């Protein structure tokens, strides 16, 4: 190359960095988000609060015949709840203004089944208003949940109900300020009160019955920036696929025109409808339940949910329910705030900040698309290459060697979701070593957790597959905080098993009190045959005490015997093994009878549905009877187990009409999901030996 040619090329390359030679940005690819969806996805995390008639009945799904007079919280303070949500790092709150029981927690003009019939504030209360005002006061966004299914309304399933429902939507979106998200639950049709009919109603195609196309048009006119969750294939956001908060990976924010794609979404889908992971902070359910403190999820469990939802490009909505007084459960609040502390520690330092970044190519040699944009802390800037380059690489040199185990990547989603797969390499001992060869799509974000911490100063990002030229807006490196050492508590028969990492001393109690210096020290062979709550914590070598774990147990099943069963191996329902189940071999009703070996004063029982991921035969309607002698029987409970298909957790039921000690119980499945026979993974009974 002669000097003249060299000078010419240098002039051209230099000129390409000038405004007049600026490269055009890549054109959007496929379905892209609206500005409202972008803002929503960047919220990442917000709260759900279930608070209504079910709070006072102990149900998850009310039947519709509940009296509004039972709603009477004695210490409700919306500002306190919203303040707690904000302290927990939540960017918004969604309140269940109406659940399936049809009770409206605002003074609606659409139905008499509303808060004006409650004694709370002499019928002048408005929970929706108080939450909306509290959100505004504390600077977080307000949203609402409005169940399409209404088990109270006499016209549900008929055309007349639609006028009622549309009026409710208009009221909520007109009278309470900006609403960032409205939730249309997918549970629709079934048994209900329906104005006294007490029958089962089937609406067929929910999308057609509710006319979600019309509903969405209405919402767009009233609140155009409101994100619509659900609404058939007309909504802006979709369910993540489970009520455990976990979202499948790869997670595509795009779906088919007909809404197909489920929790995973559809690669190259025609509509942008990202997923939302939803779960509760407490294993007991969506609404508050008596005794739920022993079932709160630990901050470490919640971090797993975080990585499996937000870390896969979805949003996370976490439910924290209020109790009968209107307050949040202290155990739930403690876990929420400690969860926030773990996230703060995770994001405290991005080791990629200040890195020197080069690439195999930069679009038009324009610094506007430079690879350094990936580490500038700005999600709007991005690294891009030429349109025909689908597999570029970038090289990241950190300011100094760093140890990390989480890698976060983002695409510029305003231009669509493009990347199909990627690998990440680290320079270790002078050689490139692949530390992640399972990266799939990126989208809004993906957090890749490594099997072990890696120490290096140089990394390489290799895009190995893409539908269109990649547009990468972030490359970050983090170190997971060490989780607290929490004991795990189990019981097999009468044997109490408490396990913790390390060789720390374990202190425990069996009366529900907090373990402290002087409490019993756990050793192998400890016994606990009673019904109650066991709490345990580690005591470290420096004398400090770790966080408390707790577990609630029913009466020990040692000595229990199945006396009779209509069919199936009923012993599997009382073997303390959730992996085994009783499966009856005929249609409901199906039952089995158990001799507990001695008389007990019983107060409640629990039902654990099958835990193998299948729903066929899950008992959703039941009857529970007790007897002192196996001959004279008293019906102690009857009803339904709600929401099993989406949330197959242990169901607790308080017993009634049990004034004397009993030795026998009979569990009957009177109905089941999918029209099949009854089943049970475990039945537990709570109480105390007679005479205690």
UniProtKB/TrEMBL annotation:
One of its GO terms (cellular component) is lysosome. It comes from Akkermansia muciniphila. Keywords: Glycosidase, Hydrolase, Signal. Residues 538-688 form the F5/8 type C domain. Transmembrane segments: none annotated. GO terms for molecular function: alpha-L-fucosidase activity. Belongs to the glycosyl hydrolase 29 family. Gene3D superfamilies: Galactose-binding domain-like (2.60.120.260), Glycosidases (3.20.20.80). Its EC number is 3.2.1.51. This is alpha-L-fucosidase. The lineage of its organism: Bacteria, Pseudomonadati, Verrucomicrobiota, Verrucomicrobiia, Verrucomicrobiales. SUPFAM superfamilies: (Trans)glycosidases (SSF51445), Galactose-binding domain-like (SSF49785). Residues 1-22 form the signal peptide. One of its GO terms (biological process) is glycoside catabolic process.
